[in-house]
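dumping these here so i dont lose them again. two proteins, back to back, each one seq then C-alpha cells. dont judge the mess
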Amino acid sequence: MILELAQYEGIYDRIKITESQLANLLFCDKPNHFVAIALVDERLVGLAMYNLTYHNICVNVTHGLYVENLYVSPMFHHLGIGTALLRHVAFVAKNSNASRLEWWVSKDNPDAQRFYEKIGAEVLDNWNIYKGSKACIDQLVGDVI
C-alpha cells in the first residue's frame, strides 16, 4: 500500500524504507509510529500512518498526532473510507489527550484539500514548511561527521 501511495503521488523512486525497517518502527517495545488500515472484502484498500509529536510544547502542552500518510486506493474513493481512517486517528488523539492533529497536503492535490476543508480542518497560510536534507545537516555540522 505504501508503494501504491508513492506511485500515486509520483514519488515511487524516493521510497527508501524496507519492510524490516517499517516493522521495527511499528512493532518495537515503545512505538511512536502507528498504522490503521482499511479492508474491503479482506482486501487492503487504505491506510493512515501517524505518529506522536511534541513540537511547540510551550503552546501545545500535550502531544499531538501527525498524520504522515492518509491514502485510499482510487477505485475506493468517495466511499467514506478516508473519513473513517481519519476518524479513527481522531479517536486515538482524543483518547490520548492530544491537543491537535496535523498533516501536510500537496498543493497539487485539490481533491485532498477539499476533503480536509469539508471536515473542518484549516489551512495554515501564515506558515511555510522547511526541510533540512542530509546535505543541509552536513553543512550545519560542518561536515564533522
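---- next one ----
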Amino acid sequence: MDRRARFWERFVRAERSVALRYGVAVLLAAASLLLATLFRGLEKADISSLALASVVLSAIYGGRGPALLDTAITAVGIDYLFTEPLYAAFNSWASAIYIVVHGLVGLLIADIVARLRDAYRDLRLEHEETVLAKRAREDVLAVVSHDLRSPLSAILLGAEYLKQATSGEPREIAGGVERSGRQMSRLIEDLLDAVRIEKGQFRLEIARHDLGEILNDALRETEAAAQAKGVRLVRAVPPGRHELDCDRGRLAQALANLLGNAVKFSPEGAAVQLELHPEPGRVRLVVRDWGPGIPEDELPLIFGRYWQAQGTAHQGTGLGLFIAKSIAEAHGGRIEVDSRPGAGSVFSLYLPRGS
C-alpha cells in the first residue's frame, strides 16, 4: 500500500469525537465560503462547487450529520453573501428556493458519500477479520499436521507389522486400523494442499510418465475404500503406452480424489469406471459412476473449498474436488462434470499433450 493509500485509509477509518466531527464540518463550510469570497471576481468561479466539495469532505471525515450541517451553513451562506440583494437570506421566493435546492443536493451528496464511507469501513473490517481467520486456520493446520504426522506414522507401521505377524480376525482388525490411518493421512495432506494452493505455493514436478501406470496408482489408492463399500473399480485403457509430461504423484492424487468421491456416493455392488481417452492434442481421463447424481443447483458449487453434498457432512474435508481441479489447472488442463439426478456422474479431466 503506497503513502497516498495509507493516508486515505487512516482518514476514512479514524474514530473521532462528535465535537471534532461537527467542528471540522463548520470549518470546512467557512473555508468554502471564504474561498468563494476571494474568487468572487473571477468570471468562471463556481461557488456552488466549492460549497458541495466541503459537503463531500465533511461526509468523508465525519459522516452524515456533519455533512448535513455543512450543507445548511453553505446554503444559507451563499444566499447571504452572493445572491442579490446581498447580506440577506430568505428575503424572496427565489432566495428560499435556492437554499432549498442547494440543501436537497447537499443532502443527497451527504447521504451517498456517507453510505460509501460506511460501506468502505465495513468492507475493510470484514477483510481484516477474514485475513485473521485465514491466518488462524493456517496456524491450526500447521500445528495439527506437525503433531499428528509422527503418531500417525507409528500407527501405520504398527498396523502393517500386525497384518504380517497375525492371521484371521486380528489381521482384519489390523487392516482396518491401517485403512483408517491412511485415510487420516490423506485428510491431513488435503488440508495442507488447500493451504498451499491458497498461498500460491502449489508446485509440480513435471516428467514424462506412462498414464496407464498413473491410473493404476490412483486405483490402488482407492482400492481399500472401494472394498469396504462393496464397490467395483473398473479400468478402461486402450492398448499401448500413453505418455504425458506431468507430475505423476499429483495427477494420481487428482484421479484418486475423483475416484474416492465416486465410491462414496455409489451404492453397494455398483461399479466406478476409470477411463483413458487419447484425443487430438490432449488426453481425457474420465471417472464414471452410476450413483444418485448431483442436483443441478449444486453443480456450480462442487469444486469449491470445503464444499460437501447434503447429507454427507463430516464424511471428509470437502477438499477433494477442489484439489483435483487445482491439480488439473496447474497442468494447464481443466475438469468438467456431467451429472443428472438418478443417472450418475461423469467427471472428465482434460490435459493438453504439451503440459
